Amino acid sequence: MIAQPVSMVIVGGRRLFPGVMACAVVATAATFLSQHYGAPVMLFALLLGLAMNFLSAETACGPGIAFAASSLLRFGIALLGLRITLAQVVALGWQPAAGVAITVMVTIGLSILAARLLGFRGAFGLLSGGATAICGASAALALAAILPPSPQREKATAFTVIGVSALSTLAMIVYPMLAKMLGLGDVAAGLFLGGTIHDVAQVVGAGYSMSKVTGDTATVIKLMRVATLLPVIVFAGVMTRARFGPAAERPPLLPWFAVGFVALVAVNSLGWVAPGTSAAGSELSQWCLVAAMAAIGMKTRLWELATVGWKPVLLMLGETVFLAVMVLGLLHWAGPLA
Q1: How far lies 325's CA from each of 38, 128, 219, 294, 319, in Å?
Q2: Angle at 176 between CA 175 and CA 178, to 5 degrees
Q3: Is the Cβ–Cβ distance between 233 and 258 less than 8 Å?
Q4: pLDDT in tens, 150-192
């Protein structure tokens, strides 16, 4: 009775092992390059994965790569919940939380509208807008996981990750100089950096390059943006269920990785997770997401990305500029925060 399920697990593990190990090797190489050259690790993982695209086609690595691009990705997203506690959100008061909610909703809404006006599906606007408004490549991967599987989804995800990683790196360099030019105080600068830069790592780098207060504020604001990932996933799930087809084929309204995400936020907020365990879980989440990004790169054909044209570039650049202008406008309206 027990021997048959165990043997199935062993056979499945052997089938997935080559591809998962290939993704792990690429993730390790991407992490090494990121630490030594200061560029986003997700971008390195994607580029290295693109260079090893041949592994996903008619090789023993194919099943494991597909597993890393789907199941491993979802597991990493669930573990993101260990980065956030409700106390971090409450400590800043209601104004920053309201500002984050407004900027995320407006940015994603206008991104979907702009994508349709440019001739793309609304799903691409959701991907690019979510990546810009929430947490960069991690948000793009999470939102891609809720959309119906298709070659277009893989292509759009890869392009979004490339674009958001490049823009996030540029923002990390330019935005601190802009904050100084505008005469923003430590807290206001943290609100600006945390509310605009795409990836968590770049927010941390930009914030602490100015001051500890700015870095702490920017990090908490960024984590508040990460916390909006759950309601956005639910929204994407509702939209997908409405348009995906027969009810039997629809994806779940709230996928398991989203349930895991909110459960870990709750557990972490109650103090039931030791600091060491939380840090280890966050690190594991990062590794899973980097490996998944490598797998997506392996599944993507580079020549297809070269055909996207200038419109997606214009869309993502416009989203980034719009978000920065909106956050500066909210800071100006708030007055005392500056």
Answers
A1: 27, 18, 20, 33, 10
A2: 60
A3: yes
A4: 667 777 888 888 888 778 878 888 898 999 999 998 889 999 9
Residue 257, domain member (yes or no): yes
Least confident of 91-95, 136-140, 230-234, 249-253: 249-253
249/228 Cα distance (integer angstroms): 27
Mean pLDDT confidence for 87-106: 80
Q: SS in 3 state form for the chain? A: CCHHHHHHHHHHHHHHHHHHHHHHHHHHHHHHHHHHHCCCHHHHHHHHHHHCHHHHCCCCCHHHHHHHHHHHHHHHHHHHHHHCCHHHHHHCCHHHHHHHHHHHHHHHHHHHHHHHHCCCCHHHHHHHHHHHHHHCHHHHHHHHHHCCCCHHHHHHHHHHHHHHHHHHHHHHHHHHHHHHHCCCCHHHHHHHHHHHCCCHHHHHHHHHCCCHHHHHHHHHHHHHHHHCHHHHHHHHHHHHHHHCCCHHHCCCCCCHHHHHHHHHHHHHHCCCCCHHHHHHHHHHHHHHHHHHHHHHHHHCCHHHHCCCCCHHHHHHHHHHHHHHHHHHHHHHHHCCCC
Q: Which domain holds residue 310?
A: 16-334
Residue 8 inside a domain? The answer is: no
Residue 2 inside a domain? The answer is: no
Instruction: Yes or no: say if 126 and 112 are a contact pair by the CB < 8 Å rule.
Output: yes
Does residue 293 lie within any of the structural domains? yes
pTM of the predicted model as reported, rounded to 2 decimal places: 0.68
Total domains in the chain come to: 1
Nearest residue to 17 (alpha-carbon basis) of 59, 50, 47: 59
Which residues have CB under 8 Å from 180's CB, separation 6+?
A: 189, 210
Q: How far apart are CA 135 and CA 210, in angstroms?
A: 21
